[in-house]
Amino acid sequence: MKRVLGFLSIFIVVLIGYYVQPILFPPDTTSSPVEPSARPAKRNSLKHETVATAGCAQYIGLPISEVEMDLGPPTKIELSGFLFEMRTYPIEGGLLQANVVDGVITALKVMGKENKESPFEFGMTNGDLAEQMTLSSNFAVNYNDEPIDIELTEDDMRFRPLIAFDNGTFAVPFFDGANEELFAVAYLDVETLLRVMPYHIYSGNPLSFQSQENNFDWEQVNQQKEQQVMELVNLYRSFQKQPALETSTAVTADSKTLLASFLAEPQSVLSRDRQDEWATNSEAHAGNFSFSLRDKEFQNLAKNQAVDQEAGLFYSPVIDPWFSLFNWISQERWADRLLEEGDYQLGVAFDQQNVLVLLQELEQTKESDER
User: pTM (2 decimals)?
Assistant: First the structure.
């Protein structure tokens, strides 16, 4: 009995201690501070390699008057409608065009041969270029202290890679979508690159393009750009040993009719989703918010206006006709169409940043003339 009473006494003391201790000595519930992670939550900067400044890259940022001592006088001086001037120069086997803002060169586009100091040789392949330098797919640039990350697709890397020079300028070598040989190069400062922007922007914003005031003579500028595209297409065809494409009042009128029709009533050929896409892109006023008609949409546009067409292209925005044409030729479907063999005529219509290109068979064009 004494043992039982002793056991019960000890058990009661233990039980009291177990329940009373947390009350008399509560645990410290103050949460420990969480150590901040040493790894930032933001995406790492995209590194890209630079190459030594060479070729026309050395001219970017210089006064045009100084560079013309080497190039000679321009054969044409034309306004773009987007706050820069375009000056065209003949060079060996081709043409060169400079974009000029306030007397300073912001871009140079070359279709022909460059001096021996250039890292680019016309007719070279992408593989040839890759043997000379490392081609980057990711770029981190800064404009007015704003970081902008650019990413290139596999097609970009293959047909229009981006090259960064150590003087802060850039070049886009364009490889032909048909034979994959280099046919043109565009040199640009960072501002121009961000305005035409042919690549995907991962983070940051492209620069919107700025148009002239409403009282600007767009009719004259549109006509000059139409002529530019015609001349450049035929220069490209001459490189490929193809005869020049001609134009006519009929095919020109047809191209203008199609362009005016689409701009006035895009809903006649676009689905609801595509209408929204067109509205968003056209309101963005930015190079990488581009819009083009699909083949079926273009065919419906031509059918609605009873216009015969072998092939056609509507594209917006086009603020630099040379750069846009280089971009199209670096895509196989358009390189092939611009090299069509046979009796074809070409019509080009501009309405500010909107362009429509129409390819017609010559017999169809003659029928249009007769009508």
Answer: 0.84
